[in-house]
Structures are given as C-alpha cells and as structure tokens.
Design a protein that fits this description.
Immunoglobulin-like, elongated, alpha+beta, Trypsin Inhibitor V, Chain A
Amino acid sequence: MKLFKHGSGSRDPESRLVRQIFFFAVGTVGVAVIAGLITFVLTLESTEETMVPDVKGMELANAIIDLQDKGLYAGVQLRYSQELSEKGTVLGQSPSPGSVVKAKSRVTLKVSKGAAVEKLENYVGWDIQELEAHLKSLESVYGPLLQLKQPYTRVYDKKPAGTILEQKPEPGTELSVLTELELVVSKGPKGQKTEVKKYVDMGWREAFRKVTNEGHPFIFTLNASAEGEPGTVVSQSPAAEKEVSSSTLRQLIVKPPEDIEEGKRFGMLERELPEYQVSVPITVRAILPNGEQETMISFNHKGGLLTIPYLQEAGSTIVVEIEDKEQIRHQVPEEEAGE
C-alpha cells in the first residue's frame, strides 16, 4: 500500500504541469486569433475608399456638407482674393476633385475672406443722400463695404445743407474689414432757408429715417381715420417745396399700417424731453422677448416732444439712450389695441 500511494503521488505534479502547458497553448492560440480578427477588421475599415467631390466655387457651409456626405473632413485655410464677391467661397481644394482617398481623410479647402485691400474713397463734397444710395447699391452686389456711423455730426457751413465736409478714416485708407465711417455734414449757413422735402405718400419707416438724417426737428402723429394709404405719411406741415428755416419743425401725420405681421405691434413712443442748448445724440434700441437686442435708429434731437413710431414684437422693450445713458423704457403691448 505504501508503494502504491508513493507512485500515485509522484504522477500528480506531472499531470498538473501537462494541463498547465495545454491551457497556456490554447490561450496563446486564442489570443492570436482574436488579435488577427481585430487587425483584419481594422484593415478592412482603413481600406475603404471614396472619391473627393468638386466643391470649388461653393459657399463654405455647403462644401463642408458635401464632404461629410462622402465621409470626409474639411480643413479650412483663409486667404485674400481679387474679388469682393468671392468672400466665403471655396477657391481651391486639396486633394483635387475626383481623387480617390481613404474614408475619414481630410480635404483642405482654400476659402476667400474677401479682397486683400480696398481703398476708401474721398466722399468730401458728396451729398449725404447720394452717398447712402451709393453704398446701398454696392451692398446689394458685394455685401456691406462701409457702415455709416449714425447720427452724423451736423454743423453750420457755407456749403449747401447735406454736403459732407469731413470724413474719418481719411480718403485712401486701406481697408480689409467692414469699417465704420464717421461724417461731418453741413446744415447750411446759419439762418439759411431750406426747401421742405416731400414726405406725403412715403412709407413711415423711410420718412422717419429721412427726416432724422436731414437733422430737422420733427413730430410724428398717428391718425387711423385719415385718408390715404395705410402705413404711409398722409399729410405734412410745412408743405413740400416750401422755403423755411432749417430749424422749422416738420410735422408728419401717419396712417397706421393695416397688414401687420402676426405677433408684432405698431405704435408710437411719445415723451417730453427737456430743451437742450445743442442737439444731443439719441439711440433707440429694442430688447426682444428672447433677450436679443437690435438698434432701431440713431439721430440728433434738441429736446421737446420726442415721437418714435415703431413696429416691434409684442412684449419687447424699447430703450431710448440719450448721450449714451438710458433715459426711457417703453413696453410694447402684449395685446392689440381694442382687445
């Protein structure tokens, strides 16, 4: 019995060793198989190919979408170009259109940020209304080039009213970004009479902008029962083409518009201001219900009755700043008048 037990015990370590070697070998093979499968899958993915689309001449946003549809990523390089109209468009790309590349590759887009240099013209001597029309025509073709700082500085001068006397930046200044242009505009000789412009039949927004840009004192009044086209100036005093002092008050009567967009309100902000010795800058802003702000208009005012026609979202707040300090807050009604 002792001999039998001794022989059996001597074989147990050998059995364990064999089993360990067997399991180690099986595990090694298993790991190798799994690694091989992973490598195979990754190799398949890395060999997926796609053709680079032609995005030259596209707006950047559209070009990026086209690349993403092909499983490609966009890299952007900004550069100046010869034409203002090319701003924001793709001038070139690398790899070139039609190239076959691996999925998830990067395509570098060369995108225009506009003309390298524009030189500011000399606007001294221009009429302010001519300049406004000139810049508006350029904006419709190329996008905004200059932003006129409002209100204009107006001074008495021997030059006719509306003539641009000074500008900043100076003519010839090289520009590569949207620039604010400050102007000094003639009010004409002190005491000189001016011809009253025609406001009748003009839309209320245009009339408001026009009379404030001209720098004359003004009052707007609403009259829903007046004859005339809704949303326009239906009468004025003094009459058009009459010769009056530039300090003569322009009184404009507006018939409220009828077709008002849902959720908006048309109304008039009226406040009595103190009389100022000189005209002071006034800026009118609207705070929309969502918190966004927008500048409605800027102009100079000598005090007295302030009238501001508006069309804004219901629940908005109209803020009037005088010399950069908030002085008035007006709440646009939530409900329409008469509800």
